[in-house]
Design brief:
Layout (H helix, E strand, L loop, with lengths): L1 H11 L3 H43 L3 H14 L9 E4 L4 E7 H11 L5 H13 L3 E3 L13 E4 L15 H14 L8 H13 L4 H17 L2 H18 L13 H8 L20 H19 L5 H15 L24 H5 L8 H6 L4 H6 L1 H13 L3 H13 L7 H13 L11 H12 L8 H21 L1 H8 L2
Antiparallel strand pairs: 1-2, 2-4, 3-4
Helix pairs in contact: 4-5, 6-7, 6-8, 16-17, 17-18, 17-20, 19-20
């Protein structure tokens, strides 16, 4: 009985009439709170949908995307659309696909296409904008034959994925393909180059990218084999559209309004039959037109054009890479060290000049590029020690001698040129460098003339590229550099 009374008090909020009167008021308050929360969530969802619709309308291809998506809805109709099936052969199986001939036949019979060529053109537009993807190959076009194609998932349509174009996402995708270790997912040449470039550009967060790629690869391995094949091809088609191979024409970067204006026929100028043209030569008006056109072409050639998106992407990647090492951006400051750009303290600059007790941030920056390594005096010294151990220290010595040659007074140039040639490139050189035959012949011809500061320019570039491609990469992978990192 005592427990029942406690339960009654807990439910009624007290005994007597007060408890009875408080029940309806609390229930009405809670219901009004739920109603207000639902209303606010619906308003927020509506504002998000309106914002997303406005962003889609701002895209230059929004009109053609809407037309293609309405056609795609008819294509994917279960009753009247194109037949999607699983094709089985002796050694393989292709799920959820259809042939290009079936797609062109459906478009010819269900649209206003006049012939098979026009139907194939409409199908190729669907593929060029990423709504249809090829099962094999990288060409975003449809052929009227027995080659297989798939529909792209709506989540990856170009009208719904303008914000998912980060370089980190592309790096995760490429890294995941290397982890899956399948022949059909092997990276092509341009994708391997993109992966190496992204690894250098995103070196500060590559561990996170690798962990995310591992997690996605584990999830992919747990899926059904046929479903995994479809998802892999859809993801590959998405990146073929947004990170195309070199030389490919990308449809989503073309402004259709400008394209339509360029396709309009140019109206010929109405000229009267009695227009005076002197016999034997052109009129002054006609003779001036090529000159004006040539001047405009010269001005266009001298005008430098940089794509704003590429410049912004490069600037953003630079600041992300150097955010932990540059005091101007706000990073790289050791403990209890003031920012030299804000205060008058020069302690930070002095730490960058020390040849002993090198900070860890300086050693990490050596891995950015060979220019960062050679710009740091301590880095150049450590690189020289490692080259001497690898019996290739003469390469760096020759490159440094050529750099110093450009800063010498004119009276000392001839003597220094002869010394460099006798030390590194001559037939009896004491520290010969390994250069190709054409390079050695070019240097020999330059030595026959009057000596100048740029007599070894070809050999200097050859040796620098050799250090950049071979020696520098081996230095970063060596135990010597790893010990330097561990000792910081």
């Amino acid at each position: 009985m005592q427990s029942a009374s406690k339960l009654a008090r807990h439910r009624g909020g007290g005994g007597g009439g007060c408890g009875g009167s408080s029940g309806p008021s609390s229930s009405s308050a809670s219901s009004s709170g739920v109603t207000a929360a639902a209303a606010s969530s619906s308003v927020a969802a509506g504002s998000r949908s309106r914002q997303r619709h406005q962003q889609q309308q701002q895209q230059p291809n929004a009109y053609i995307w809407s037309k293609l998506e309405s056609l795609l809805e008819r294509l994917q109709n279960e009753d009247s659309g194109v037949t999607v099936r699983t094709v089985k052969s002796f050694m393989s199986c292709q799920p959820s696909c259809f042939t290009g001939a079936e797609l062109c036949a459906w478009l010819l019979s269900n649209t206003d296409a006049d012939d098979a060529q026009e139907a194939c053109h409409v199908a190729s537009m669907l593929a060029a904008h990423g709504y249809i993807i090829p099962v094999e190959g990288t060409a975003l076009a449809v052929r009227n034959d027995s080659s297989y194609y798939r529909f792209q998932t709506p989540y990856l349509w170009p009208s719904r994925s303008p914000e998912r174009l980060d370089n980190a996402d592309y790096a995760v995708y490429l890294c995941k393909r290397t982890l899956l270790n399948k022949q059909r997912l092997e990276l092509s040449n341009y994708e391997a180059e993109n992966l190496a470039r992204l690894q250098r550009m995103l070196s500060h967060k590559w561990e996170l990218i690798y962990l995310q790629a591992e997690a996605e690869a584990k999830v992919d391995r747990k899926q059904d084999r046929l479903e995994r094949m479809v998802l892999e091809s859809q993801e590959r088609g998405f990146w073929l559209l947004h990170r195309p191979p070199p030389g490919a024409v990308v449809a989503n970067e073309v402004d259709m309004r400008k394209l339509c204006r360029s396709k309009r026929p140019v109206k010929a100028a109405n000229r009267s039959a009695s227009f005076p043209i002197p016999s034997g030569r052109l009129s002054p008006i006609e003779s001036c037109e090529p000159a004006v056109r040539a001047d405009k072409l010269r001005q266009a050639l001298s005008r430098s054009r940089v794509k704003v998106s590429k410049a912004a992407e490069s600037a953003l990647a630079y600041y992300q890479q150097y955010s932990e090492f540059d005091a101007f951006i706000g990073g790289g400051l050791p403990d209890q060290c003031q920012n030299p750009w804000v205060s008058d303290s020069a302690e930070f600059w002095e730490s960058d000049k020390r040849m002993r007790d090198i900070p860890g941030r300086r050693v990490k920056r050596w891995a950015f590029s060979i220019h960062e390594l050679l710009r740091d005096p301590a880095g150049r010294q450590e690189f020289e020690k490692w080259l001497v151990k690898e019996v290739s220290g003469e390469n760096l010595a020759f490159w440094e001698a050529c750099q110093q040659l450009r800063r010498l007074p004119i009276g000392q140039v001839a003597r220094e040129v002869q010394r460099i040639y006798d030390t590194f490139l001559g037939p009896d050189a004491t520290e010969p460098v390994n250069v190709a035959g054409p390079v050695a012949e070019a240097v020999r011809r330059r030595m026959e003339g009057p000596p100048d500061r740029f007599a070894f320019e070809v050999a200097e570039e050859h040796i620098f590229q050799l250090m950049k491609v071979d020696s520098y990469n081996r230095f970063l992978r060596s135990d010597y550099y790893k010990d330097l990192l561990a000792g910081c």
